[in-house]
Predict the structure.
Amino acid sequence: MLGGALNSVAGGGGFIAFPALLFTGVPPIAANATQTVALWFGMSASTRAYRERLDVPRRIMIPLVVTSVLGGLAGAYLLLHTPAHTFLHIIPWLMLAATLLFALGPWIVPRKSSLAHDASVRSIVGASIFEFAVSVYGGYFGGGLGIMNLAMLSAIGMTDIHAMNALKALLGSVINGVAVLTFVAVHVVYWLKGAVMIAGALVGGYFGAHYSQKLPPQLVRGFVILVGTSMTIYFFTRAG
């Protein structure tokens, strides 16, 4: 429930779910795959809760969704063919960069969102390339995917935290969705423990998204930065 709620508000549900599965004896690769499957259900529930906030034109939405699918597949393939411990040394630097990018976004990009209805082709291409990189990361590990997506949206000019969370939830569902299909196909998911986590993620994902929209945007943004900072410290400690 906590992982699903955290994902719906700020991202980082994997920061809770992945260690929880490791502590119960699930191997790293299987734990990563299982938490991806479980939290995907929670992310889908939060997408439904955010549906009224999702106001992005199709000419922008379609390229982002397509690149999310391709990147998610590429990341899932890398996970199944690369030692997981190697990535543990890269994660802290990615988290640090994402958190700083999100925190400094309002000061380093224009106040007007570059994802407006009249967005240029160049802006859309740039956003799609950025999203592809984020989705590869999401398909491979997924911990902090929400933070990465929020950082990407902040960097390209979005400033409404609730609209950002809505788009983050949709893109996260797509990225993890294709990864879920891959992990299920190769039978790497621990279904008994995963089923318990799915139930909790569904409840946490929906209610986390629902109640977070009642909070002031500044408070939610501050919480995102706090989560990102905590995740960065955790992964640097783990890598060390």
User: Anything to note?
Assistant: Residues 2-239 form one domain.
